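ok here's the first one, seq then struct tokens
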Amino acid sequence: MLARTGGDSFVVLVHHADARGAETMARRIVEAMAPSFTLEGAPFTVTCTIGIALYPGDAMSAEALLRHAESAMRGAKEGSRGGFRFHQPRADVDLRSRMRLDHAMRQALAQETAARPPESGLAPARRDGAERQGCTDSRLRVHYQPQIDLQSGQIIGTEALLRWRDAELGEVPPAEFIPVAEESGFIVAIGEWVLDRAVRQAADWLAQGWRMPVSVNVSALQFRQPAFVDGVAAVLAAHGLPAELLELELTESILLRDADGALQRVQALAERGVRLAIDDFGTGYSSLGYLKRLPISRLKIDRSFVAGLPADASDAGIVRAVMQLAQALRLRVVAEGVETPAQRQFLRDVGCDEYQGFLYAAALDSSAFEQRLVPQLAERLQ
């Protein structure tokens, strides 16, 4: 039985079929859709993606079977369109886990918002100087990883990194909650909150006489928001931070998706004085011609290429190639994930400008960051 359930969605009910019979039917449907169609003299192709749920193993009711089949179809689309996938009970468990995680994140941000009335239109902020990040009961917090000049060994900047400790879940790693936030779209609200906190902190340091540039990661969804550029300008204005003390880190995939629109945004940001960097450089695909047009100031070598240094010949070759490219484009280079003196020495030898990683410090709360900074400032005054 074939039925249309709405839009471009169809359901096929196959009686008395086991998994093999269901797979055979799915393959027949995919093959039937493979040839091109002709409409008003123009050829075109249509692909179909199929999710399969079996009775009674996957569900006992029609509603549950349809729900599981649709979930399997979405999973198949995430892989590659034009195929099929069986329902996997584990996927439903993972979905529930992601939903719980997403809800907990939303509650955490709502708690922050309720505790601090917003000053700017983007996110909560307070400039009374009394509250110190890292010393509150907040479950969401921003930590700062020092960026070190490879020649002088001095702190010359910092990257703002989101940390989250939940009352029930404990310390949740960013690699676990960031993908969930991106999938649900909540990454936009979180990204705005982190940007506001980081800019406020940099402005606080500046008021104390510490001119410390801060880098903030931007997600693809956040970057594509129509009001993104104006929102960045509004946060800078709200906290009185000079634009050149803010650097936005964008991945290659962000810049290459909708290249013309991305170019317009980065140029608008650069015109306002905001610095721009390409994060995780080398993990995606960059057109050198397009890269040359971008008003960026730094490339960040992904930690995956630093981990094997200096022994791994492939990693060493990639890092040298990035350095040559950066020098040709007159860009500074920051290496991420530096954990050993040997890695630092290799990077210094090939001309890398800066590094960050556990070798110097993990991401620190603002108070701990300042404790690292004060001796350096005292040394300069001597």
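and now the second one, same deal
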Amino acid sequence: MIRLYQFEPAFGLPNASPFCMKLETYLRMSGLPFEIAPNANVMKAPKGKMPYIEDNGHAIADSTLIIEYLKKTYGDKLDAKLSSEQRAIALAMQRLMEENLYWAAVYSRWFEPDGWRLTQQAFFGKLPPPVKTIVSAVARRGMKRELHGHGMGRHTSDEIYAIGKADIGALADLLGDRPFVMGAEPTSIDAVAYAFLANLIWVPLDTPLKRYALSRPNLEAYCQRMKARYY
């Protein structure tokens, strides 16, 4: 059986990491049997990040590479009927969320004061107080370097949120009144979209990104649809 290693649930979501939630959602959508490993330790992860899986004696890291592995190993029921054009659109939207919108969300969680209080407790809250302070500070400095290296961290707060809202708007426009991102039936891009949107809309943190996402009613309706179907 596939063994999934990820962070613990937080914020009332299956996972506070959209990448972990993406993979768990994909596993649920695909119907593959899996179990969630208790007490997963990010320090033991093959690439130093969550999520990762163990399957048939092999450890595979990175949510996208894991899904590619699962498709090749167990078949691709979700995306088999997509056209080449649909696959291109799905990939473009995945990159929009994972490589751009993600960093705007990181800014809101890790560097805004209210966001940092919530994030620090969610990811480091179980550590003893002195360790929590040190480890979370180190992690925050590392995230700041990553945000700056990506380029998002070089912008002002207003610019960051404008970029993130444009991404959310593009996703809302693509979804329109369809039940799922690519149409009438769910595909693997829905695992990505649900994970990222739920981590904006349903986290108990007031941000410009959340407010804008809630201003597009089709996005929360979509999240409710995904939740009812797979959770």
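notes on #2: The mean pLDDT is 97. The longest strand covers residues 2-5.
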